């Protein structure tokens, strides 16, 4: 049984609707799938309704955090989506995402890039706008040749000419909010060097002290030595290790099931959750 605990749908910055994500995962042999859209639970109901017999959905999300002026992503699983404080933070982050996206479109216009808010809104659809939507608009307008090229200092990469900062949670507070909602917090892709993204061991240890339950070690952006080092670190801190595709549909080449979690780690995650249970289609 393949267990993929991190993927995205068009409820955030993936390219496929939640039901299609479930169908593609099933076709790829995934038996347990976590839908972890950015700062939203909007796709959960559709995904649960699309489950084929024998498949399990783990309701989750990827929370936006900031540490030392750098982005940090926290995966949250099986929390009570109705818990008011965590729900309020989700809404605040989503609202600021929209404000930030408009700001980046304005900066692009000032730089001479023919990207409009109407174009970004069409690409975004009913989800919350994010940088991948703007990147797709830049490709569509012929400004860049690929989404990857948009995520550079020339355009909307961190600190880039059209980059706009946004609200994000302190990760220690985020871990505690997830725990208070009965959920299980796991650090997402802490060694994604391709993105210029790295979380120091000392910072991971501090998050473990606050209640971090696991580390996502097996990720497409992680090199083998980093995966091994994260396993050693997790064992020393008493945490489990997860693996996942972090699939975004067309943006990542439809790679559901490319990286997976062990059944032991999944059992540990499920046992630690008190906010919700997985959806299982018998």
TrEMBL record:
Signal sequence region: none
Matching CDD domains: PHP_HisPPase_AMP
Matches recorded under Pfam families: PHP (PF02811)
Polymerase/histidinol phosphatase N-terminal domain sequence ranges: 3-67
GO molecular function: 5'-3' DNA exonuclease activity; 5'-3' RNA exonuclease activity
The protein's name: Polymerase/histidinol phosphatase N-terminal domain-containing protein
Organism: Actinoallomurus bryophytorum
The organism's taxonomic lineage, starting at the top: Bacteria, Bacillati, Actinomycetota, Actinomycetes, Streptosporangiales
């Amino acid at each position: 049984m393949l267990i993929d605990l991190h993927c995205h749908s068009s409820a955030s910055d993936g390219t496929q609707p939640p039901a299609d994500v479930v169908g593609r995962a099933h076709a790829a042999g995934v038996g347990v799938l976590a839908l972890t859209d950015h700062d939203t639970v909007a796709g959960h109901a559709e995904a649960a309704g699309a489950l084929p017999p024998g498949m399990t959905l783990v309701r989750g999300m990827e929370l936006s955090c900031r540490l030392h002026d750098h982005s940090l992503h926290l995966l949250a699983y099986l929390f009570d989506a109705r818990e008011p404080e965590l729900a309020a933070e989700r809404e605040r982050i989503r609202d600021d995402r929209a404000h930030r996206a408009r700001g980046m479109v304005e900066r692009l216009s000032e730089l001479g890039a023919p990207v409009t808010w109407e174009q970004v809104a069409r690409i975004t659809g009913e989800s919350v706008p994010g940088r991948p939507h703007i990147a797709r608009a830049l490709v569509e307008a012929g400004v860049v040749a690929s989404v990857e090229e948009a995520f550079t200092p020339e355009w909307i990469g961190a600190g880039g000419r059209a980059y706009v900062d946004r609200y994000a949670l302190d990760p220690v507070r985020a871990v505690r909010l997830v725990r208070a909602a009965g959920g299980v917090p796991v650090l997402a892709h802490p060694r994604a060097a391709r993105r210029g993204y790295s979380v120091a061991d000392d910072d991971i240890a501090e998050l473990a002290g606050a209640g971090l339950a696991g580390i996502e070690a097996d990720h497409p952006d992680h090199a083998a030595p980093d995966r091994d080092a994260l396993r050693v670190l997790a064992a020393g801190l008493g945490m489990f290790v997860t693996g996942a595709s972090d699939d975004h549909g067309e943006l990542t080449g439809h790679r559901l099931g490319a990286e997976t979690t062990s059944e032991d780690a999944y059992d540990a995650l499920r046992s630690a959750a008190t906010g919700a249970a997985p959806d299982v289609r018998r």
